[in-house]
UniProtKB/TrEMBL annotation:
Pfam families: Dynamin_M, Dynamin_N, GED. It comes from Cynoglossus semilaevis (Tongue sole). It is a peripheral membrane protein. Residues 552-643 form the GED domain. This is Dynamin-1-like protein. PROSITE patterns: G_DYNAMIN_1, G_DYNAMIN_2, GED. It is found in: Cytoplasm, Cytosol; Cytoplasmic vesicle, Secretory vesicle, Synaptic vesicle membrane; Endomembrane system; Golgi apparatus. Its main location: cytoplasm. Coiled coil: none annotated.
Amino acid sequence: MEALIPVINKLQDVFNTVGADIIHLPQIVVVGTQSSGKSSVLESLVGRDILPRGTGVVTRRPLILQLVHIEPEDRKKTNEENGIDGEEWGKFLHTKNKIYTEFEAIRQEIEAETDRVSGSNKGISDEPIHLKIFSPHVVNLTLVDLPGITKVPVGDQPKDIEVQIRDLILKYISNPNSIILAVTAANTDMATSEALKVAREVDPDGRRTLAVVTKLDLMDAGTDAMDILMGRVIPVKLGIIGVVNRSQLDINQKKSVADAVRDEFAFLQKKYPSLSNRNGTKYLARTLNRLLMHHIRDCLPELKTRINVLAAQYQSLLNSYGEPVDDKSSTLLQLITKFAAEYCHTIEGTAKYIETTELCGGARICYIFHETFGRTLESVDALGGLTTIDVLTAIRNATGPRPALFVPEVSFELLVKRQVKRLEDPSLRCVELVHEEMQRIIQHCSTYSTQELLRFPKLHDAIVEVVTSLLRRRLPVTNEMVHNLVAIELAYINTKHPDFADACGLMNNNIEEQRRGRMKDLPSAVPRDKVESFPQPVPVSRKLSAREQRDCEVIERLIKSYFLIVRKNIQDSVPKAVMHFLVNHVKDCLQSELVGQLYKTTLLDELLTESEDMAQRRNETADMLKVTRSFLRASHRRTTGTEDNPNAPLSWVCVAVL
Ligand code: GDP
Ligand code: MG
């Protein structure tokens, strides 16, 4: 099996990393009657003395023998971790992590485990023993040793032992992905071979059945296996291969595998000179090798499709990781610039990545201005928090000791200022909300738009820090401006404002009315229901006189009118101020601020340190991409040029993976 090692191991190593299921090498299953030499055949293929062999019923449970190729590093690691010193070792499923470095101990464990489940009196069980052999000299291949076909129950065996074993064998060989080694001893009648009979049941066309004839050395004197080996007795499509395994005496005398192979070769040359190069353990191994290769070839079209998909996936994954950094300085500048641009784009609504699930960036700022802020302002009532008593008190205080003829203007100014001040808080809140949104955009940009940033967590953090502090610096300036906008309104109550003229007219009318009222001493011109619409409590001492009520109403109307003018101004000017002092300023300064703070030679290495697993992941992906690409190139060569070459499948598989 040595010839298979480099090819299949490389293939499987590659496929194991991309997903273990990509190629299933067939399991090799031995079938045959009891003591026909099944275990011996498997063992000589593996080249290790691990399987219990002998006369009578020895193999009494299926043995699933998984050969696992190991690389020197794995070997060193396992040796260190387990305090062992071995090139090859075995592990059983049922003994968990226990490591067997002696093959003798492995054989003993198989025997003990067989006895444990099947009893010590020839009982048979269908419960498999799982054994893994780790070695640098094996291919990743699974071999299955099975109890032999038997007819007559012995020992603890049940009456229907024949049926039970047959079912057990069928279970394994009916797997279409298995190669059946139908073992028949040369000193029995090939025409009645139970092994070939049972194999034919599941593989009638003989596509995956290979006949192995053992015990060539034990044939009666005067007979030979020529006819059998030539396929004249029973033809077998994939071939009939004769072998000579170690006899019981050889086993007892601990004859080595190498010696056995040498003696086998000598025997074949002597007895079957014309067939010696088409028989023997080595030829059997080569034939299996070829069958496995054919299997791989058959899998290729589908494999190619899957690898194509994988290659595309690796390519896009690799793209998402970005190129390794060669020129740090330009990479840094690029990333900073890209971030700054994305930040601005997100505000302007021209970003590549546009959210569809929720508002963000500029759209959210717009929403804050017009929905959140606008609505809040509109809900600020012109006369909110102002009681009739407050108004009355202000009027009285403004007239001083003399009773006034007219409503004093001072009281209007005093009261209207008090109301205008109430616009400041919602305005400052508007700044706060926009500031928060600007902060949120940082996150948005680094997650969606400038994904490369995720590769460099330190740069990411540094950028966030710079933008955050820029935003933080702009906050007091913007707040100050907004505060001033309200202060400006308070600084001068412009009663000559054109929109206020109507209200003034109303006031003058009122003064006129008052004058007439006093002259005629008539009751209030203000309708009764209007008066009652001031539910505020009046001083307990007395009710408001008609005049007082009228005065209050005049003042309140004036306040209302003037307040609406100011509110409109604020609603208009605060967003403008926020845009100028915060949003636009940050937008304009962002790039230079980032460059100024981060684009420094001393910071290059620090900022462009990749996240730990990123470099590794990129390398792994690049490797996989290379393997998949070379595979595809090789398979392309095959389909375009070497179709007529019968050896092409083998060679191009090698090309693809070596
Ligand atoms: P299994 O029951 O089919 O697994 O057969 P084993 O591999 O256990 O072999 C049964 C016996 O036959 C053992 O004693 C082997 O040493 C012996 N044996 C197997 N193959 C050969 C062979 O080719 N020549 C000789 N002389 N003995 C063999
Ligand atoms: Mg056996």
